[in-house]
Task: inverse folding
DNA sequence: AATTGTGAACCTCTTCACAGCT
DNA sequence: AGCTGTGAAGAGGTTCACAATT
C-alpha cells in the first residue's frame, strides 16, 4: 500500500470538516479551488491529496459535497465507532471527556484509569475510574482500540508500555514527552504549549 | 532573516522540555545523539536545527544542558511573560485556564471574553469575563499579545477580525476552521480531533 | 576518541501545467 | 468553457559524511 503522508491525512480531516459545514449549509457541489480557499491552501494540493485515494470529482463540475464528505469519512475510518480509554483523569482528561467533537466523530470513551486512590471507584459520565490493576482485562472487555494518555510526563512511558502489552496499538499522548513503542504501534502527540511557543517565537523575531 | 521551518521550531520546543527534565535530574551535558534518542529523531537533525541559531556545543563533549536550555528559551521568547486573552470560556476554555504548563512557560491569561450573558461579569481565577464591548480598550489596557480562540467555528472569523483590528498579531485557534488574516498576523491551529482521526486512519488500513 | 557544525546528497512534499473529461 | 487528475518540475526538509575542534 502506498505511503500516505501525515500532512495529507491531517488535511483530509480538515476537508471533512469543511465539507460537513458545506453540506449543512445546503451547498451541493464545490470545486477544488473552493475547497482550497476555505482551507488557505492551493487547489492542486486538494486534488493531489484526493488522488491518492481515487477520483471523486467530475471534470468541469467539481465535487458533490455529500459524496466527498462520506468518501473522506470512510477513508479516515469515521464510519465506525472507536472505543477509547482515557488514562489520567486530571484537568486535561476531564476536559476531553466533555469534548463534544470526539463523540460526534465516533470516538467514544469506554474506560477510565487513574492512579489517585481518591478518584478510583468514582464515576464520571457514567464511567467508573479504574486503578491500574487488571488493566488488560478491562481493555479487552471494553474493546479499547485507542488510548489517550493524559498523565504526567514521567509516567507516560510506563503507562504506554502496559497498554501495548494489553494489545493497544494507537495512542494519543498529551504528556510532553516522546515515548518508545514497538513497530506497528502508532503514537500521536498533542501538546498545546508547542503552538503557543511557535507564536512566541514569531512575535520575538 | 533566514526562514526557519515550522518543524524546526516545534522541535526546539521539544528540546526545551527534554533539556528542562535533564537539568532537573542533574544531568550536566548531553550529546546530539542523546537528545535525538530522547526525541525519537536523528542526531543530525538536532545539530542542524541548532545550527540555524548558532554554535552551542563543544566538539568532543556535547552540550551543556543548562546553557542550551536557556539559549533555546531565549530563541523561543520564553524569557519573558506573554499576556494572553481567552475568547470563549466554554469547556475547552476553562481547561486551558487551569493548564499549569502555560503559566509555567510564561503564558499568562490576562483577559477573558464570552458572548453568553450568563457568564459576562462573573469571575474565573480572579479574571472577569467581558462581553465584546470595548474589546480594544481591554486588549490595550492588559497589553494582550496573543489571543486564544475557543469559540464555535462559525464565530471564529469575526472574533479574529475584531482582535486583528485591535492590533493582536498572534492567535491560537481551537475552532476547527481556517481563518483569514492579513500579512504579518500569525495563526496556529490546535485541533485534537485531527490526531485522533490520524489514528483512526492508521487502524483502518 | 568523541562529538560538533555543515555543505552536499538525498528524499519527500508541493506546485505547475496541461491532457482529458463533462 | 470549466474543472479534474496527474506526470514532471520545483521547493523544502532530512540525512549523510567528514573536516574541524576539544
Result:
Amino acid at each position: 500500500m502506498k505511503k500516505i503522508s501525515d500532512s495529507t491525512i491531517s488535511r483530509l480531516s480538515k476537508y471533512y470538516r469543511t465539507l460537513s459545514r458545506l453540506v449543512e449549509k445546503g451547498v451541493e457541489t464545490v470545486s477544488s479551488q473552493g475547497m482550497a480557499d476555505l482551507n488557505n491552501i492551493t487547489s492542486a494540493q486538494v486534488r493531489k491529496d484526493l488522488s491518492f485515494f481515487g477520483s471523486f470529482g467530475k471534470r468541469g463540475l467539481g465535487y458533490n459535497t455529500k459524496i466527498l464528505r462520506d468518501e473522506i469519512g470512510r477513508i479516515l475510518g469515521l464510519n465506525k465507532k472507536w472505543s477509547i480509554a482515557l488514562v489520567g483523569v486530571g484537568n486535561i482528561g476531564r476536559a476531553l471527556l466533555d469534548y463534544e467533537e470526539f463523540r460526534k466523530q465516533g470516538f467514544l470513551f469506554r474506560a477510565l484509569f487513574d492512579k489517585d486512590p481518591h478518584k478510583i471507584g468514582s464515576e464520571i459520565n457514567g464511567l467508573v475510574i479504574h486503578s491500574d490493576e487488571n488493566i488488560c482485562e478491562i481493555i479487552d472487555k471494553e474493546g479499547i482500540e485507542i488510548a489517550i494518555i493524559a498523565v504526567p510526563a514521567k509516567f507516560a512511558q510506563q503507562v504506554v508500555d502496559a497498554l501495548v502489552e494489553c494489545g493497544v496499538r494507537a495512542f494519543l499522548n498529551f504528556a510532553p514527552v516522546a515515548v518508545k513503542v514497538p513497530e506497528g504501534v502508532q503514537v500521536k502527540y498533542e501538546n498545546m504549549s508547542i503552538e503557543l511557543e511557535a507564536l512566541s517565537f514569531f512575535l520575538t523575531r
Notes: Chain A has nine helices and ten strands. Residues 31-33, 43-44, 47-48, 50-51, 55-63 of chain A lie near DNA strand D (CB under 10 Å from a C1').
